[in-house]
């Protein structure tokens, strides 16, 4: 990993360059994605079958995964895996239940009633990756908040393999409470969910991570349906002072690097000695990883260690990056929370590694990437509800404010708006 010393602008320039490179690649892929989306919209199931054969090498007559296949999958996986899923489910549910909000209605006795209704979405589509790495944890993280919100119908799509759908993903779907499962993936699955086909229902919102083509497809269909966010490659920033454990930090950096060759792992520290130790640990630990080729390419391309003069400078740099994951390996990380402005999820102390959040603790692991933590939030129960406002005025209450309303309407040149008020008081 490259080490830079005291150069705040260097890391920000490196991150900007990395994100610009990703954008350039996206522009090339976007044309292919838009063509797939348009084709699925026009030809439905026929187009989906053709793309499934072309990209996944699988010919399917029916996309729907039946209850018997799900039951077989659950029976085939290890008991301790199921126990781990159930434990993770309990934590995710207990965390997200606290996010539920109630509607409200207020009235002060003057003939005015105002309020807000909160209603769950009717149908949600959940995309679950199934490529170089399958993620049963993503099933729980996307489905359980929707269930808590009260979504009536949850439809899951996931790419098929030569032997069908990954059994661990099916087991997670069973535990999470997915209503329908379809063995399709890629941009064609996103388009099918957005526009509906003879086999797949149209949904109101599409959530869940995927590769660049899935992300671009979600962007392409936005407007026809809602989406959670446009997720880019995974990223982590670790901040530590001289008390940091180099082995822990290196392991955490590699935990993100193994996701994807475009993932980024950045370490910011006030200690030159720790910087060198972490670099050596990364090189050593990398050799033992089954996904060493992917992690190594990520570290080589997007890994960086920055030595700064103070923790305040480290926080400043991190806030500019607005990382998906931020770890604080410092003596009193809770006290530093006030200095963190932009981060998807924050991990406090040496015993809160990022994978704890990925799998088990409860906070959602669907997080904003590519600097969008400046204005986006993690997936939550709020993503699966919609709000409607309501109001009621008596004649007397409206009469009290009619002149003020007509003044505002006339200043905007909207005389019909003003007339809709005054007509109620014509003699």
Automatic annotation (TrEMBL):
Q: Which residues form the active site?
A: 324-325
Quote the record's cofactor note.
Binds 1 zinc ion per subunit.
Gene Ontology BP term (one): L-histidine biosynthetic process
Repressor as UniProt keyword:
no
The EC number(s) this enzyme carries: 1.1.1.23
Positions bound to Zn(2+)? 256, 259, 358, 417
Pathway of action: Amino-acid biosynthesis; L-histidine biosynthesis; L-histidine from 5-phospho-alpha-D-ribose 1-diphosphate: step 9/9
Membership in a protein family: Belongs to the histidinol dehydrogenase family.
By its UniProt entry, which NCBIfam families does this protein fall under?
hisD (TIGR00069)
**Name of this protein:** Histidinol dehydrogenase
Organism placement in taxonomy: Bacteria, Bacillati, Bacillota, Bacilli, Bacillales
Supply the gene name. Answer: hisD
């Amino acid at each position: 990993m490259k080490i830079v010393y005291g150069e705040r602008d260097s890391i920000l320039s490196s991150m900007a360059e990395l994100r610009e490179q990703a954008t350039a690649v996206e522009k090339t892929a976007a044309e292919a994605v838009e063509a797939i989306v348009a084709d699925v919209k026009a030809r439905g199931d026929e187009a989906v079958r053709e793309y499934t054969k072309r990209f996944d090498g699988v010919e399917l007559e029916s996309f729907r995964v039946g209850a018997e296949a799900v039951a077989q999958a659950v029976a085939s996986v290890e008991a301790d895996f199921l126990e781990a899923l159930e434990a993770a489910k309990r934590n995710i549910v207990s965390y997200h239940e606290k996010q539920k909000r109630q509607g409200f209605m207020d009235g002060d006795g003057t003939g005015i009633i105002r309020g807000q209704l909160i209603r769950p979405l009717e149908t949600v589509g959940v995309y679950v990756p199934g490529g170089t790495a399958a993620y049963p944890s993503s099933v729980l993280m996307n489905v359980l908040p929707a269930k808590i919100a009260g979504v009536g119908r949850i439809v899951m799509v996931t790419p098929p393999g030569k032997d069908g759908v990954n059994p661990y993903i099916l087991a997670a779907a069973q535990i999470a409470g997915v209503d329908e499962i379809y063995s399709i993936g890629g941009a064609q699955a996103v388009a099918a969910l957005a526009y509906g086909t003879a086999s797949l229902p149209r949904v109101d919102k599409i959530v869940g991570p995927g590769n660049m083509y899935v992300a671009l497809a979600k962007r392409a269909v936005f407007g026809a349906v809602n989406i959670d966010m446009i997720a880019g490659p995974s990223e982590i920033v670790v901040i530590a002072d001289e008390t940091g454990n180099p082995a822990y930090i290196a392991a955490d950096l590699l935990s993100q690097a193994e996701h994807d060759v475009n993932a980024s792992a950045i370490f910011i520290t006030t200690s030159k000695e720790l910087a060198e130790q972490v670099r050596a640990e990364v090189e050593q630990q990398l050799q033992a990883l089954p996904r060493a080729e992917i992690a190594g390419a990520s570290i080589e391309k997007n890994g960086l260690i920055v030595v700064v003069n103070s923790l305040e400078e480290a926080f400043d740099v991190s806030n500019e990056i607005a990382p998906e994951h931020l770890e604080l390996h410092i003596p009193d990380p809770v006290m530093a929370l006030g200095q963190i402005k932009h981060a998807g999820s924050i991990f406090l102390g040496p015993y809160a590694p990022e994978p704890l959040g990925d799998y088990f603790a409860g906070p959602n692991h669907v997080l904003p990437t590519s600097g969008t933590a400046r204005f986006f939030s993690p997936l939550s129960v709020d993503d699966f509800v919609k709000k409607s406002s309501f109001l009621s005025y008596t004649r007397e209450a409206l009469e009290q404010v009619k002149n003020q309303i007509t003044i505002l309407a006339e200043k905007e040149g909207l005389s019909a708006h003003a007339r809709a008020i005054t007509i109620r008081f014509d003699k």
